2-alkenal reductase (NADP(+)-dependent)-like (Rhodamnia argentea), 690 residues
Amino acid sequence: MEKNSAASSCEEIVRNQQVILRERVRGSPKEADMEVRDGSAKLKVEDGSSGAMWVKNLYLSCEPKTRHLMDTIRPSSPITGFGVARVVDSANPKFEKGDLVWGITGWEEYSLISPSETFFKIEHTDVPLSYYNGLLGMPGLSAYVGFIELCSPKKGESVYISTAAGAVGQLVGQFAKLLGCYVVGSAGSQEKVDLLKNKFSFDDAFNYKEEPDLDAALKRYFPEGIDIYFENVGGKMLDAVLLNMKSHGRIAACGMTSQYNLDQPEGIHNLVNLVLKQVRMEGFLVSSYYHLYPKFLETVLPHIKQGKIAYVEDIVEGLEKGPAALVGLFSGRNVGKQVIVVSRE
Amino acid sequence: MEKNSAASSCEEIVRNQQVILRERVRGSPKEADMEVRDGSAKLKVEDGSSGAMWVKNLYLSCEPKTRHLMDTIRPSSPITGFGVARVVDSANPKFEKGDLVWGITGWEEYSLISPSETFFKIEHTDVPLSYYNGLLGMPGLSAYVGFIELCSPKKGESVYISTAAGAVGQLVGQFAKLLGCYVVGSAGSQEKVDLLKNKFSFDDAFNYKEEPDLDAALKRYFPEGIDIYFENVGGKMLDAVLLNMKSHGRIAACGMTSQYNLDQPEGIHNLVNLVLKQVRMEGFLVSSYYHLYPKFLETVLPHIKQGKIAYVEDIVEGLEKGPAALVGLFSGRNVGKQVIVVSRE
């Protein structure tokens, strides 16, 4: 009560640069779909906005979900997505001014966070804060849930990961190596392939764009078949994988990025292999697994601190570079987790 | 030892009518792919054929698997498939002369069963023996495994079954009703639809051939979506179902009969819904679940004896009618489980 009664007397009005959605996006996002413009913000939670909070955005995540979220906001609103932020005013009993948090925020300098939005308080600050956009955020939890919880990997099993150099894929591969699996990943450039082999310790990796026959490529890397496929792309890759699954194989479907921007998704022709090979394929949304976040952190933080998990970020400085970074994501321009720095405080 | 030493002195040579595979089948089987001809058999297990047995076939099952098995046998050999038989000579320590058994046998009057073939001894004979081709055989176990074990149904959930009037589908529907689910099935004729509603107590049923828009049909029967889909057909039906699954839905893929005989399977376009709706889709082969057969029998026999499970067979008399029955299966001619009577003893 004290906080709110004081609000009217010391309002702070600040510039609030924003990345605005111009109009509904069709297919892959283009820079012209977005506009960077200056607004302003009064950084006080209004009386009666029970549970809301104002945050100063520090790091924004640029990921396939950002594209999905574009379909859920009204034109002329800011783009939304995961970000790391500092609370500047709070009527939310779970957070107070000064807390570092992460959750879904706006592509702007300051955001008013509604009480219905799930935010996580950042307790461990002895790792780079931007990691909470990736390794220690949704991509990390996605890798953990999809691979560990859904696929129950066992030592010695063969694991294939598409979009392996992406934020989720690179972690799945490293979790798999820590568990003693044989791990091969694919990516869309030689630079990423080198990263997978040299930085992330994959057993092998290949550039799918240079493989005219994906089935043949998979047979080369997995002559005895694939136990676990971590699915990020869908389309022709999934069709080729289905031909190469081992009996009782498992597929965690985290995303099908090759399909999101098509008017008519490609047909998958080899699904009968799910029956013939007794394969389990399970789609998941990380938002259903928030309750596993503490368990995930407990598992992964020691590995990070012992230097057993490598992590690569592709960092652009400045909110105004956000639109180009998002567009680049869909052409595979980024190497590692794409992060936009709004402020280093 | 005694048995074998006696063999040479009392050999029994009998006529053995057989349904022979003429040549490798392309697509759906045609009657011309098969030939009924007379052979002969000496109903004694030869010295040294450790573990083999001769059986007299009584009832043969006609099912999609019969088509698959055609690809695994050499031309000029008899068709193979599940059947109920009586042991007439045995060197298999698990079975003795006179035992009633079921397992994969030949489409012929008498078959020599190799010791590597899995056979089940029939202990309960107070139900029709032909049931061991269906309700109490592989189709029954398939329904149990796919629905109960893989989909973990809960009271009040919405269940959709394609090829619902088939041997497996009719049982899945009845298991679902016993558990308190809402159950809708589809089939390919009005006669089958009536059977589903009147005989098998489905909540509703429709003729998919009369539905120009399967998505619209499913939305009509499942305005709030489908929790569990028991998949028997694949193709366009699966694509429509994917649009109508509820969040955290489950699909047990028992077969994709619409696809087996196509040179190029149809494309499935809506698989991204596995991710968006967090659906688990799992293929299975009943042969991996033989260990559950006793548990299954224990569950289902009381229901049968209490008249709580209805079962419909489409019985043709005589091995020579086998080819037409098998061809009819793929055009949906049969109503209920297709059985061929070889001998009523």
Observations:
- The first strand of chain B starts at residue 13 and ends at 21.
